[in-house]
Specification:
The protein has 131 residues and is of the alpha+beta class. The chain has 3 helices and 5 strands. It has a 5-stranded antiparallel beta sheet, with helices on one face. A hairpin with a 4-residue loop joins strand 1 and strand 2.
Length: 131
């Protein structure tokens, strides 16, 4: 019920002056365009960029890669074909997945470098405390 006075006021204002409604209309158009641009840069563009990176990663899958599936299964790629990947989970266990089920390729070199940096930092901390 409270919107009726608002509508009556809008009808009176529209009849009195056409210039104010044109300005309001233009500002609405500008706000809509601005909203579309914001959605593009904060939602659409990053999502398409991430999708391209994921597709690139899936195309680069090869035998011997350590992978993690979207279900959280860790294993080593045993064989790859056009649509499927066979992941060796244990000595006698192999599971067949579609390529899109692979969430990430584990990089064994990156954690080793981080561990080395943290061990170097730990070795330096006691010497600083002695001073």
């Amino acid at each position: 019920m409270s919107f009726i006075p608002f509508l009556m006021g809008a009808a009176e204002g529209g009849a009195a002056g056409g210039a104010s409604t044109t300005g309001g209309f233009m500002s609405s158009i500008v706000m809509m365009v601005l909203l579309v641009v914001i959605f593009y840069f904060f939602l659409i563009r990053p999502q398409s960029k991430k999708q391209k990176e994921t597709q690139k990663m899936l195309d680069a899958l090869k035998k011997g890669d350590k992978v993690v599936t979207i279900g959280g299964i860790h294993g080593v790629v045993s064989s790859v074909d056009e649509k499927n990947v066979i992941v060796k989970v244990d000595d006698a266990t192999k599971i067949k997945f579609t390529r899109s089920a692979v969430a990430a390729i584990e990089n064994p070199e990156a954690p080793a470098k981080d561990a080395k940096k943290s061990s170097d930092a730990d070795a330096e901390k006691p010497s600083e405390e002695k001073k």
